[in-house]
Write a structure and sequence with these properties.
Blueprint: E1 6-10, H1 15-25, E2 31-36, E3 50-53, H2 59-66, E4 71-74, H3 85-103, E5 107-113, H4 122-134, E6 142-148, E7 151-152, H5 157-168, E8 171-174, E9 181-182, E10 185-186, H6 187-196, E11 206-210, E12 215-216, H7 217-227, E13 233-236, H8 242-252, H9 257-267, H10 277-281, H11 290-302, E14 330-337, H12 343-350, H13 363-375, E15 396-397, E16 400-406, E17 410-415, E18 421-429, E19 433-442, H14 444-486
Parallel strand pairs: 1-2, 1-4, 2-3, 4-5, 5-6, 6-11, 7-10, 8-13
Antiparallel strand pairs: 9-12, 14-19, 15-16, 16-17, 17-18, 18-19
Helix pairs in contact: 1-6, 2-3, 3-4, 5-7, 7-11, 8-9, 12-14
Bound molecules: NADP nicotinamide-adenine-dinucleotide phosphate.
Amino acid sequence: MQPMRHILLTGATGYIGRRLLLRLAGDPAVALRVLVRTRAKLPQLPDRVEVVEGSTFQLDALTAAVQGIDLAYYLIHSMGQGADFEEMDRVSAHNFVDACVAAGVRRIVYLGGLGRPESASPHLRSRMETGAILSSRPDRIQTIHFRAGVIIGSGSTSFEIIRHLVQKLPVMVTPRWVSTRTQPIGVNDVLAYLQAARYLTADGCFEVDIGGEAMTFGEMMLATGQAMGLRRWIIRVPVLTPKLSSYWLILFTPVPYRLAATLVEGLRSETVVTNDRSHQLFPGIQTEPFAQSVRTAIAEIEQRQVISRWSDSSGELREDPDAPLEQAVFQDRRSYDLNGTSTASVFRAVTAIGGEHGWFSYNILWRLRGLIDKLAGGYGLSRGRRDPEALRIGDSLDFWTVADLVPDHRLLLQAQMKLPGRAWLEFLLTDRALIQTAYYYPNGVWGRLYWYLVLPFHGLVFHKMGRSIIREGRRIEAAGACSRGGD
Ligand SMILES: NC(=O)c1ccc[n+]([C@@H]2O[C@H](COP(=O)([O-])OP(=O)(O)OC[C@H]3O[C@@H](n4cnc5c(N)ncnc54)[C@H](OP(=O)(O)O)[C@@H]3O)[C@@H](O)[C@H]2O)c1
């Protein structure tokens, strides 16, 4: 049988989907269509890739997306999009399977999580329920439900947590859950299974558990340390409650409290493979050893080849993507003369902002704001950036996300920090000036109070930031001139 050719990919701007997108888009034998909520978040794609803009809650877009499709990948979840993520996941999966059945799609391929329903966290239970809904029409459509536990890859949540803990703490005092067994799998192996689902000839709906060698979280940390050339010690104590463990994680790793708590909750019960279907249905795939997945992830980080990160999905920011900035209740606009420095050089300086590079001025104040944000359950500054120089729309950048990026002209950052309102920071370049504007929509009285409280700091921080950016732009230009002179 020929592999299925007409493919729909959902979740193409997320951690797994973005990586699968590059593989499918690079295969000329695949007629690929993607359903995305924000087209601008997609990378440059070959012309033959069709893009449908919309979500699984927009039935017109969904119906258009599934027409003429043989196989549809479902790589979506609603966690982080509000308190009622379970209901959203339920509706989304029902909409999807109904649309696929109506359009005559032959196969749905879904990636969910490993675990047992009786001991699963709410997040995991929702993933299982999604799998059950997508598999609920075996008479009309085949569903392949892959289930994976911890995924090891550059930028994946679990790997970033392990890496940060291992890098920062020579001796780790750990709670009991680090002894729970799981079966981690490298992200490239996950992608191999997802791709191989195109070639499957067996009929029927299947749950396919995938994973490598069984290990505890503690063993993963020690093995990661070894792969990084670091000797580490673990001391287990029975007293660390899940809540304390989650606070511990937000202190030393980039994840916010919500994600840390989900992870800890998930690790309190075993997530191991419970069936042998991966071998029966996909005998050609041998998962790589854990240490190899770690080495690949580290190499990608070192070579600045991180394709996707755990923070790529828009989450709650989706609620208000088009707020008219010019109508923001509070605005703080400042203009800085380029003094002959080219817009290209100044823009390079602008786009280097944040992460390890810092914020050009009063980094101590930014760090303090980051700490307050972390303590309030936000991201703080520890998410950093995917790449020290390159940015793309949708990238997370400390406690911001890139909302718009027009080369040499505009960078718009939308605040993801905990705030009593909604905020943006814009850098606009004209031929002569850099215009830097903070926009703010307050929520009620507290929101207004917050603005007046931070106003004196804006005066300090923003003013120096603009001038420092121009200075950095000048330095970049001079360095470029020197290296050209030396050529
Ligand atoms: N990452 C892991 O470590 C891991 C481990 C085990 C299993 N899994 C499973 O793998 C699947 C994919 O996870 P992921 O980590 O890649 O997720 P992710 O990074 O959070 O990405 C989610 C994707 O879904 C899109 N999306 C969300 N709601 C949507 C909707 N209603 N309509 C259309 N698109 C929507 C998001 O678009 P926006 O960009 O617009 O937000 C984003 O592209 C999930 O089922 C997850 O349980 C992941």
